[in-house]
Design goal:
The protein is an alpha+beta fold. It contains 17 helices and 7 strands.
Length: 345
């Protein structure tokens, strides 16, 4: 579990678009004036809550809902893209929950009972209640994933909020469902059957959005790909938050698992070897050309935890990933590569 949260640099622009004066906001929150100038913005739970408390005070009643909703897919962060690549809504939320466990002191809890599916957030290092605006953002983000993934105007059964009922009805309008106030905890509740809703975005070729430079590097090789290279490319396109099985890759290539295995053997490889090559190549790219942290890279590469990733990388490169990244970035680069950002609540 990480002890910090990542704040997306893009939040600065979105706050300005909402008419919020960011320097005054940071001052009120007791945060450094140059917070958004850092390449990787990491904050503690206390700092995260302070920031969102001030956003709630400075913004309009639905500012959290607005900031948690993204209309354009090209603005999605890699973790949301990984969730959208899942086969179903339930699996998408399991992927996100796993990522949270790896990367920050936050948990997403799922409970199914009596035909209902309840989702709520836990802030593991919090010494005070989470800001209401942060709850709004989290629930709006879940709804955004559900609607983009299913391609439907899906709505929860209800929202349960600990706060007293406000005078406005912005939450009912946004979520298109009943909202219960003065509840015991903050929860968004869907139908249990919604977990099985298929995502039309599943198996989308997201690698070009996650790492466009990597995709371009592959195109620039010029030479015709061998069968092993074709398999590696397919693995890398599906290696987002989970480790694909041989049968999944075979199905993607319209082959049986036995035929896939035989053709790889003809090239002198096993499926496991190609899997490791795929992870190794993509790991090098993520560390060299993106702002993904080690926990985030571990998640994107399908490792169960960051320690497993570190051990694997030591085997590949002979040194830990953090050290390798420092050495690579200290070398002169021909041009600046566009950075990836991971949006964390």
């Amino acid at each position: 579990m990480g002890r910090h949260f990542r704040i997306p640099g893009r939040l600065h622009a979105r706050l300005q678009e909402a008419g919020i004066r960011v320097p005054a906001l940071l001052q009120s929150a007791g945060l450094p004036p140059g917070l958004f100038d850092q390449p990787r913005i990491l904050v503690t739970t206390e700092e995260l809550f302070a920031l969102w408390c001030e956003i709630g005070r400075a913004g309009h009643a639905s500012i959290g809902l607005a900031l948690g909703t993204e209309a354009k897919a090209e603005n999605f962060d890699p973790i949301t893209l990984a969730a959208l690549a899942a086969p179903s809504f339930g699996e998408a939320m399991r992927q996100v929950a796993r990522y949270k466990t790896l990367s920050c002191p936050e948990e997403i809890h799922h409970e199914t009972h009596a035909g209902e599916w309840s989702i709520h957030f836990r802030w593991l290092l919090a010494e005070s209640p989470e800001p209401e605006v942060l709850t709004d953002l989290c629930f709006a983000w879940i709804l955004s994933i559900a609607r983009h993934g299913t391609g439907q105007s899906i709505s929860p059964l209800r929202i349960e909020l600990k706060r007293p009922a406000p005078k406005h009805r912005v939450f009912e309008r946004h979520f298109d469902c009943h909202v219960t106030y003065s509840a015991s905890k903050n929860s968004v509740i869907f139908r249990e059957s919604d977990t099985a809703l298929p995502f039309i975005t599943r198996n989308a070729e997201l690698l070009g959005m996650l790492a466009p430079q990597f995709d371009q590097e592959m195109k620039q090789t010029g030479a015709q790909q061998t069968f092993a290279e074709v398999v590696r490319t397919v693995i890398q396109r599906k290696l987002i938050g989970g480790r694909p099985k041989m049968r999944e890759i075979a199905r993607e290539l319209h082959l049986s698992s036995r035929t896939l295995q035989r053709r790889l053997q003809d090239d002198g490889f096993t499926f496991q070897q190609v899997m490791e090559q795929s992870r190794h190549q993509l790991a090098r790219h993520y560390l060299k050309n993106s702002m993904l942290g080690l926990n985030e890279a571990a998640y994107m590469l399908g490792f169960v935890d960051s320690n497993s990733f570190v051990r694997a990388f030591r085997t590949w490169e002979g040194l830990p990933p953090a050290h390798w990244r420092e050495l690579e970035r200290s070398r002169p680069q021909p041009e600046t590569t566009e950075q990836l950002e991971v949006c964390l609540t």
